[in-house]
Write a structure and sequence with these properties.
The chain is of the alpha/beta class. The chain has two domains: 58-166, abc type-2 transporter like fold, CATH 3.40.1710; 173-367, no CATH class. The protein has helices at residues 11-28, 30-48, 71-78, 90-98, 130-150, 173-203, 206-211, 217-247, 255-282, 289-303, 315-321, 325-337, 347-367, and strands spanning 58-62, 82-85, 104-110, 119-126, 158-160, 164-166. Helix 6 packs antiparallel against helix 8 (217-247) and helix 6 packs parallel to helix 9.
Length: 371
């Protein structure tokens, strides 16, 4: 005989059921897992890999014929803030000085007038490296004091001559910052613009309506792409004009440099448009588009020298960043704008961008969804 007693409704069990269903919904959403777990772990690995014993690293060349047997040289090489670099010929060394890639050159010569095997140190640099010379001279004085304190005699055996700084075109912070900001701007605006536009046209059946007309599919992509290219090139032009006229951004060869930057940007935009199409085709729901874009863009943003030099990373991370398209785009922009290199001189960077472009459009051709 069935009982007529009313069943007591358990608020606690209902709450547990809601908790369970809500938790399952979170786990079913890949973006929650990526943004809550994967990205923080990635950032911990990247920023945790910053050289803890190194802040700014000064690149120094040693003049040929210098005394490399003196303890001062050995201390210089072991200093974590100083990187001793070598060049194949004097022309390459001179170019590095003029372009601000080298902090300076040290000449370490034995002091024949001293009976204590002393050395004379001469530092030579240019105003192109003005942002690092001051810090390096402080490190140099620190090394001298350190060596003098370790000496068994009280006589000063290391003499630093007044630095020789050649007046050339200075390397300003804007010359590093602006190319990175151009890359940052076109990276996210192009990916988000193309991915959401194409996804919306497909899901709202606009593309299907286009198919009822004589227009070819390739012309649909060209129409969407040209408008995006024009808008992004216009925004890059505004950024360059603002940087040049307001913040004294260097355009080494004037109009030639400006149009070279636009041509390189055009190649990068073409690459990013393909990536946007690929992302919109892979995404099954619009909420997954930001996740896919960040998976593609955020590692590049951090590892490609956009906000700070990749030299702060250990060598293995620098090798990883060397395959990223944004790294080569940023490097090429800086070579063209400040160093005055032509597009032909940036063949390595352009080759990597072309390789990525071919790969992305190959995948897009295989995976693109029109309906």
């Amino acid at each position: 005989m069935a009982s007529n007693e009313p069943v007591m409704y358990s608020q606690f069990r209902a709450m547990l059921a809601i908790i369970k269903a809500s938790f399952q919904a979170i786990l079913a959403n890949p973006s929650a897992l990526v943004f809550s777990v994967a990205f923080p772990i990635l950032f911990v690995i990247i920023f945790g890999a910053f050289r803890q014993d190194k802040g700014v690293q000064y690149s120094i060349a040693i003049q040929e014929g210098s005394d490399t047997t003196h303890p001062f040289y050995q201390a210089l090489v072991k200093n974590p803030f100083i990187k001793v670099v070598r060049f194949q010929d004097p022309v390459s060394l001179r170019q590095a000085l003029l372009r601000g890639r080298l902090t300076g050159v040290l000449a370490i010569q034995q002091n024949s007038s001293s009976s204590q095997m002393g050395v004379t140190v001469q530092f030579t640099s240019t105003t192109a490296s003005g942002n690092t010379t001051g810090g390096f001279l402080q490190q140099l004085n620190y090394l001298v004091l350190q060596q003098e304190s370790l000496a068994t005699n009280q006589k000063k055996s290391i003499q630093i001559l007044p630095p020789q700084i050649e007046e050339v075109r200075p390397y300003r912070p804007i010359d590093f910052v602006l190319p990175g900001q151009i890359g940052f701007s076109i990276l996210f605006s192009t990916l988000f613009g193309i991915a959401f536009t194409f996804y919306g046209l497909r899901e709202q059946l606009v593309l299907k309506r286009f198919f009822a007309t004589p227009i070819k599919r390739i012309n649909i992509l060209i129409g969407i792409g040209i408008s995006r290219l024009f808008f992004q090139l216009l925004s890059v032009t505004v950024l360059i004009a603002f940087g040049h006229w307001v913040m004294d951004f260097t355009l080494h060869s004037g109009a030639v440099t400006f149009f070279s930057i636009l041509l390189l940007t055009l190649l990068m935009l073409f690459l990013l448009m393909g990536a946007g199409l690929l992302i919109s085709s892979i995404a099954k729901v619009d909420s997954s588009i930001p996740l896919l874009i960040n998976l593609f863009a955020l590692p590049q943003l951090i590892l490609s020298g956009t906000f700070f030099s990749v030299d702060v990373f250990p060598r293995w991370i620098q090798q990883v960043s060397a395959v990223l398209p944004l790294r080569h785009f940023n490097d090429a922009l800086r070579k063209i704008s400040f160093e005055g290199e032509s597009l032909f001189a940036c063949s390595t960077e352009i080759g990597v961008l072309l390789g990525w472009t071919v790969l992305i459009y190959f995948l897009t051709n295989r995976l693109i969804r029109w309906e």
